[in-house]
Amino acid sequence: MSLFDPIKPIKTPRVGLYSVGHEHYWNQFDGLLDRLLGYNRFIAQQIGTHGDVCNAGMIDSESGARAAAEKFNAANVDIIFCHAATYAMSASHISIARHCQRPVVVLNLQPTAAMNYDQTTTGEWLAHCVGCCVPEISNAFNRSGIDFHIVSGLLGLTETPEISLADECTSDHPEAIAAWEEIHAWVKASAAVRTLREGRMGFLGHTYPGMLDMYSDFTMMGAGTGMHIEVMEMCDLDRLAQSVTVAETREKLDQVHEMFVISEDSPADPLARKPKPEQLDIACRVAVAQEKLVRDFDLDALTYYYRGREGNAYEELQESLILGNSLLTAQGIPCSGEGDMKTAVAMKICDILEAGGSYTEIVSSDFNHGTIILGHDGPFHIAISDQKPILRGMGLYHGKWGTGVSVEATVQKGPVTLLNLTQTGEGRLRFIGNEGIAIDAPILKIGNTMTHVRFDRGPSQMMNDWFALAPTHHGALAVGHQSELFRKVATLMGIEWSSVSHGEAIEDSSVAFREILSLEKTELHES
Known about the structure:
Blueprint: E1 14-20, H1 25-28, H2 32-47, E2 52-59, H3 62-75, E3 79-84, H4 94-100, E4 104-110, H5 122-128, H6 134-143, E5 148-154, H7 174-197, E6 200-205, H8 218-225, E7 228-232, H9 234-243, H10 246-259, E8 261-262, E9 272-273, H11 277-296, E10 301-305, H12 313-319, H13 321-330, E11 335-336, H14 341-352, E12 356-366, E13 371-376, E14 390-394, E15 404-408, E16 414-423, E17 429-439, E18 449-454, H15 459-467, E19 474-479, H16 483-493, E20 496-499, H17 506-509, H18 511-526
Parallel strand pairs: 1-2, 1-3, 3-4, 4-5, 6-7, 6-10, 8-14, 10-11, 17-20
Antiparallel strand pairs: 9-14, 12-13, 12-19, 13-18, 14-15, 16-17, 16-19, 17-18
Helix pairs in contact: 3-4, 7-14, 7-16, 9-11, 10-11, 11-13
């Protein structure tokens, strides 16, 4: 089994789909209903590449809407797509949203970029008159308190139906590509919400004493995310560690040698040394036990910390958790240190959306490079490392008890997004996103993960803006600019979303970025 093979699969989202139309049209215009149902099947096929589709077909009456709502509820759909196929009265389908209590995305997808104006008949026009009912839908949904969103653009067919008088091959048109990117993003976001809602969070030990920003109410966390919180004790892990065989430990050590670079002594820090054989042996034995813990308790994520009497057996387990939790994080079971449940949720969302999600905090700022350095002493999401991560032996974990091995690595260069889940003074959850660019710059050789990230403004202003939103001091570092996708997850979860970045391409829009480019040119000239 590869170290990157997921231990548990991501839940497939369940998507409800229906098209709307006006039943009086069917007898007036031959072929119109079949034509619109063809569009409906195309949409179902496209959405089906990312989720399980429950398709109710054409809804053109209140009774049909009630039947569709029962069908969607029976299928336990996560999201509903309302396809505006032609004009339809809002009263004929609004009961679907009322009864299902699920977010609705209205698809305003025109089949053609432009009608054939010289030859178009009324029936032909009605097949392209998709936007005419969307204002009515929006008004009715808004006044009814229904959560709805709209995607407008082109349908994106690859073939023009024989009945059509216009060119409907729009799959390569930018308006079709953008629309389908948006639709697929909603489906992917639904996968994250379902996986969380049906997931189990392990809480091992306790929260790091004194870190008030990380204290959370288990009931509030469950209500906000849907996850079950399974409280575990260190004796649960100790029992499994005692069962690990020499052969299992040796196999894990072979995997570690394949996956990591084993460090020599740090040239700078006397605490960072080449890992001792006994340190690696203990870390690998505990890593096997951690995998067994995840399987025994059927966990989807884990947060942990332990501090007890100095020199006790559980302290040895605590010292050895970073390696195993980095491996678990790479296998889709994100592990956050210091008992930070909120960040474990943020890491899980990043991983579900295939964006990584490495445990991180602000390490320092580099005002010469215009960066904020993000990282931690673990766990690290190995799958998004820019090269083989390094294992270092630690003579002492900073600010913590004990010694052991730690992961030193850097996230892949290019676009990144910092995702933070915090709790407000009112006791509600809030997501905060921030997009930047990970750059190549020197990092410390002390056994910590570190990545230099440039944001769309200087470090001082960025920190002021970030801190003003009262974030948890940890976060999840994801690859790619993912704010829009993360925002959709927050929307579907009913959690407030805030963004620090402007949402514009840093390369194009930021004066600060142009100044940084000038600095780079100067550095290059001097070198």
